Structures are given as structure tokens and as C-alpha cells.
Amino acid sequence: MLSSMKKRRLPGHRVFAGLVLSSVLALQAGFAQALAPEHEIRRLMLATEEAVAAENWSEAGEYLNRLQAMEGEKPAEYYYYRGRAMLQANHLNEARSALEQYITRAGAEGTHYQQSLKLITDIEKASRASVRALAEGQANANEPVAVIEPANEQDVKALRQLYLASSDREALVIHLNTLLETAGWRRDKTVVRLDRPADRQYQVALDDGNISIQDIERNPDGTTVRRTLSLSVFGVNPQLRWDCEPVVGACWVYDPRDGSRLFQLAENRDQARDIARTLGRLIRNLQQGSS
Q1: 14-18 long-range contacts, CB within 8 A, separation 24+
Q2: In sequence order, which residues have a C-beta less than 8 Å from that of residue 181 and are 6 or more positions away?
Q3: Which of 8, 60, 131, 281 is the most interior residue, by most CB within 10 Å?
Q4: Distance separating alpha carbons of residues 213 and 271, to the nearest angstrom
Q5: Dihedral over alpha carbons 36, 38, 43, 48 (to 10 degrees)
């Protein structure tokens, strides 16, 4: 009798257990979705901090990716942990960008300020070593993020016709300055007014076989700072490195001598590639001594 009652009640218990399990799963999902963005960001930040402390980089990268996709203001520490993860993955340029962003946001009072400065110095040394290794043709050197394509004589001839230039060198200088004028970096990326100059611009000229670069920086208070850099082309690799970092909204072209940042540009990969390519062609032209 009791056995038959258990058999009759068994299907009901299964249904009840299924409902309980479904309710638990739904409740767990509801908890995950119920957190407001600011609380979810904080939860993921805590998880990222624990993963980095345990040197569990794959897990840290997963949390950082979820944070990056979220809307809302992220704490300064997000950029520090992103820099650590990028450095671990040997993405030196992205790591430096994130660490610099942390320093800008947290300032000297930031918990990781000193460590960030040390890491940036380490990245700078590693970048210079990589550039030297590439120049020397070492097989185990880190590959650049992107390089210019080999020069195409037909393209240079087209530039001469376009700008009515008397030489390849003149055409390359004009074209490079045209590209730099449209690729200026701006602090406010929400509204770009073409009638207002960019906050960071560059102009290039030739000076006794060297490339003279004028760096024009416009500060928020309205003042303008002009710096001039002379780039000697002797012995440098005309294949210039460049990359872009969405986190800070900028692209960079790197100095072929030591791997430091040469141009800070708007976040536009096509423009950054074309500028690096054109500057590389100009360097090669000067190295060959042709006009």
C-alpha cells in the first residue's frame, strides 16, 4: 500500500522538483540582471582585482572585456588592471596607453601610481629593445603592430601629378602635411568642428637632409605650445610602426629611432596607416639621396 502510494506521488514530486529548479535558476539570473550598472561595474572590478592578484590572467581578461563593453563611468583602477593584463599578453603599446590613462585619472595619490610609472619605464625599455632588434634583423624580435607597405613608384608619381610637385620628395612632404592636417587629435571627440584647429597637430619640413617636425599643442586655457624635433634619417628603419588604442581614443606613429611616440593622432586606423606609410616613403627617399 505504502509502496503504491509512493509510486503514485512520484510524478508529482518530479514536477515539483522541476519547478523548484527552474525557480532557482530564474532567481539567480534575476539577481545577475537586477544589479544597477554602477554596482555591476564594482562587482566586476573586485573580481578583476582578485584575478590579477592570483595572476589568473585569462580570468582577468574575461572580466576586463565585460567591463569594457559596459556603459557607465569606470574607476581609474580599471585602466591599471587593463594595463597589467595587456603587458602580460605582451601588447606593449596598449599596456602603456592604459597605464598612462590610469595615471591621468588617479594622479600621484593613486594607489598604483608608483607601480604604473615603473611599468611604463619597463615598457619603454622593452619597446626600444624591440626596435633595435628589428633594425638588426633578429628573428626573435617582437613584431610591430602594423607597418607601412613597400613604396610604390606609381603612387608617388600620382602624388606629383596631384600636387603639381617638381619632385617625389616635394610631393611626399605636401601629401604628409595634408594627411597630418586632417588627422589632428582632439580632447573632445563628441563634436568635431572643422573651423576649430585640433588640440594636437604636426607639420613637417625638410632641413638639410633631415626631417623637421613641428609639434603644435593647444591647451584648454587657449595657450599654444610649439616644439620642433629634428628626425635624422641616417640608419633608421623606414618601416614605421603605428597602432590605435580605443580606450584613450588615439592613434600613434612611433619614432623609428627608439620606438617612442612621434605623432599622436585622432583614432582613425586608415589615417594612421597612411601617415606612417607616407613618412616611411619620405625617409627612404632621403636615405637614397634622390630628389
Answers
A1: none
A2: 201
A3: 281
A4: 18
A5: 140
Residues 6+ apart with CB under 8 A from 242: 145, 146, 147, 251, 252, 253, 254, 272, 273, 275, 276
- In angstroms, the CA 194 to CA 197 distance is 7
Identify residue 109 by its one-letter amino acid code: E
Alpha helices in 136-232 (DSSP H): 153-163, 168-182
pTM: 0.54
Residue 108 to residues 80, 82, 100, 121, 237: CA-CA distances in angstroms? 14, 19, 12, 16, 37
In 3-state terms, what secondary structure has residue 226? strand
Residue found by looking up cell 582585482 in the block: 49
Place of cell 519547478: 19
Task: Determine which helix (DSSP H) or strand (DSSP E) holds 12, and give its type and residue range.
Answer: helix 2-34
Q: Tens digits of per-residue pLDDT, 61-110?
A: 888 888 877 777 889 999 999 889 888 887 777 788 788 888 888 888 99
240-268 pLDDT per residue, tens:
989 988 777 889 999 988 888 899 999 89
Residue type, 184: G
What number of residues does the chain have? 291
Distances 267 to 75, 125, 140, 189, 241 between C-alpha atoms, Å: 23, 25, 30, 9, 15
Q: How many CB atoms lie within 10 A of CB 77?
A: 18
Strands ordered across the beta sheet of 242-245: 242-245, 250-254, 261-266
